[in-house]
Please model this.
Amino acid sequence: MTSPRISQLAILGIATGIFSGLFGVGGGIVLVPLLVLWIGFDERRAAATSLLAIVIAASAGAVAQMIYGNIDVVSALTLGVPAVGGVLIGTWLQQRIPVAVAQLLFSGLLVFAAVLVAFE
Amino acid sequence: MIALAIIIGVAAGVLSGLFGVGGGVLLVPTLALVLGLDHVEAEATSLLAIIPVAAVGAWRQRSYGNLDVRSGLAIGAFAAVAAVAGVVLVNALPVELVRYAFAVLMLYVAWRMATSAIRQLRAGPDPTPPDGQ
Model:
């Protein structure tokens, strides 16, 4: 499988970063459809690559927010530790449903996010 | 309240693993409404909570053979820089207007994703074997 060109990676990263900074949506909701519709990744490869990009981007954001003193570490652990258990289930499940079904479900998530952004 | 937060945490993780998103859609409202953080604290704290979740998800996906490491690292680095521009823009633009435009764009993308998925389903069974083997 070929990897996208560096110019494409730059556009993907910049679009993801700007939209997530602007609207407070996570990068994944922007990045996954771009990887699927523009680069031609299947839903599994798009999700996998998006998760790694989120690690990098969220780390930078978290460091900045920590400097401002906005982070509540106990609350982060209260949600983050159970969520690590959940992500093991989610990735396991994703390998067992057809990629097209995962993609169809993702479009439902997009509709939900669109409603949230519009009516927040 | 803690029990509810734990249940929603697990759900956010499942969402994250299934779709490759951070799960902030569930984490931010839970931090605000269930754990009582204000909006800025909730968004900031969700960033910290997402890091281990996405890291474990990416690691699992790597062993399933789905991860493009080079792309993930490069996109993440560009996104980290561009997010600063997004935050600057949010303070300079009439965001209410942009918000509706973005929502409409997302609905259009949802339609494109759905029609492409339905085309794949009609084309026949999934050619990718499970576990990337």
Q: What stands out?
A: The longest helix of chain B spans residues 95-123. Chain B is about 80% helix and 0% strand.
